[in-house]
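Students often ask what a holo structure prediction actually looks like on paper. The answer is less mysterious than it sounds. You provide the chain, you provide the ligand, and the output is a string of discrete structure tokens encoding the 3D arrangement of the protein together with LLP.
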Amino acid sequence: MHHFEYRDGKLFAEEVSVTELAVEYGTPLYIYSAATFKRHFQAFDSAFDGLDHLTCYSVKANSNLSVLKMLAEEGAGMDVVSGGELFRALKAGVPAEKIVYSGVGKRASEIREALAAGILMFNVESQAELVKINEVAGELGKVAQISIRINPDVDPQTHPYISTGMKKNKFGLDIENSLKAYKMTMDMDNVEAIGMDCHIGSQLTNIDPFLEALDKLLAFYEKLKESGLEIKYLDLGGGLGINYDEEEPPHPTEFGKALADKLADVPLTVILEPGRVIAGNSGIMVTEVVYTKSNPTKNFLIVDGAMNDLVRPSLYGSFHRIGEVVLHGREVKEYDVVGPICESGDFLARERELPGIEQGELLALYSAGAYGFTMSSNYNSRPRACELIVDGDKVVVARKRETYEDLIANEL
Ligand code: LLP
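The corresponding structure tokens follow.
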């Protein structure tokens, strides 16, 4: 459910006309719905009420400071993967003890920043990283709380670029090396193992791979106990999918119930790191048709949004639903919706059936709230888009559109 709906044939974001926003703030334009963000967070979080748990929103999905503040006010903890994301989460007012830090290549400076802030735990992805954390924590006179990210070798049945929990992936440690890493912590003065972690992939549309991973982690938990290690947290990562097209992802309550059944007698606090399921359908990207063009085999809609603004179609072949901002009811045609960037890979949709669209009209790309703006770039020296948050009839500029001056601000 989201709050982007037509009223008398015109698209609204909550109480505000999308056309009016596009006229005032220009295009391409990201528009987020505050009510949708909050509802998604609460629906997700409450799905796990049967368990002692902490929901750590995954900042990479949408890291706008206003979005993070809004979620922090709803009670969210955060999952960060860089010093920059940690900086944002702290700026947004997230208590450090609700922050977990994942990622395969944390630098010493980033480890230092996280220790100074006092985060809940590092999800450690190699033995070398463990050694580094122990060393940095020692320098600061602190004890770092850690989980080992266990790679359970489970196929999440999703796009290969966003599968993370298989043997061939760079993430985490296999079961055997994980056990070695936990044993290493027993001889370390500045590291304390407090949890187990895994994240097997993103846009999962079935809960079975999660449950398969969980079974492996629970078996591993028994081994840890036999080794004399008592942990408190079980971090299951993120990855729950959303509906872009015709997928039918499980509702968080289905996941919550399955976890509650499996974990009824397990005295661990569960951590969840949802990103897409909170942010994805909370945002749209609006773009204007600059030109139309047809050749003998194709109709093109050349729009002012491009792969630098929303890279998912180019990078993963992802589908984003496209709709008119004002319904005209013209006859349906097949279009390639392409951006102005000098690459054939610059498209937002291919061979897409849409009602006849004319030059100057606006299109909305749905499900753009996650991995949309955060993956945007300045390629072709295109200033990045403006981000708005609509809350009822209020509009907040969450990020100003970049200017040409911004493009060169850090250059000689
Ligand atoms: N936790 C960890 C350690 C992660 O690596 C990720 C996502 C998440 C949580 C959140 O996963 P989510 O709930 O959003 O599925 N750019 C890709 C998605 C990459 C996901 C990377 N890791 C896309 O546009 O589909």
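Residues 34-276 form a domain with the TIM Barrel fold (CATH 3.20.20.10).
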